[in-house]
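Can't paste images in this forum, so I'm doing it all in text. The chain is below; anyone willing to post the predicted structure tokens underneath?
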Amino acid sequence: MSNKKELAVIIMAAGKGTRMKNPDIAKVMYEVAGKPMIAYVVDLSKKLQPSRILVIVGWQRNSVVDYFTATENNIEFVDQLQQLGTGHAIMQTESYLANFEGDVIILSGDVPLLTKQTLDGLLKHHNESFASATIVSAEISNPTGYGRIIRSDDGSVIKIVEQKDASADELSVQEINSGIYLFDKVKLFDALKHIKPINAQGEYYLTDVFANFWKNGWKVSALKTPDSNEIIGINDLNQLEEARKLFVSRKTIQ
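Text version of the structure:
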């Protein structure tokens, strides 16, 4: 028997995508090179051969469900009826994963340029560093607006600080949080019980779980992707156009 841990993938796809300017289309259903961007994330997830793939749906849910129901039979859909943040989205999957023991990768349905190479590296790094949570990070020349990854001398992550809360030293850090994570499932859902919506938006932020990891002495690690374009999330039409160009240029290189 292999001692390899089971893997589940959760894909967040419930958001409205207000800045896309068209409320009739779920953000993740905007197309890149002829396919909804979430289709690339699902295809990538399948390559990892997880035992479960869960897609969290909300805004214009039926278009997402119908698209995959026509072509896939191994995806589970989880409803997030109110969009109360990324932490709240993951909370909705708890009952679905009640009998699952293993690790959980959390992806966003609007990150179509992510590669298997990066996720394979994430799994390897997570296991080799004996981490309870591992973050995919990236180094970018202008990190303004992103949460910064603060590491200790041994390389583990001791803090994720948002732009508005960062000191001058922290603002000089160019390593950012991509929002792509690998968690020990039991510890993730334990930590989710401790987060609170104490922010202007009244939302539960997934990044708030890390405070509970550090409090318990659970190791948080980070793996830097060599290509920061991979982790670009698409939030508006300009970013969509940029992703389309990057996709085309990547295909040209291959």
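Helices lie at 37-47, 61-69, 86-91, 116-128, 168-171, 185-192, 209-215, 237-253. DSSP finds eight helices and eleven strands in the chain.
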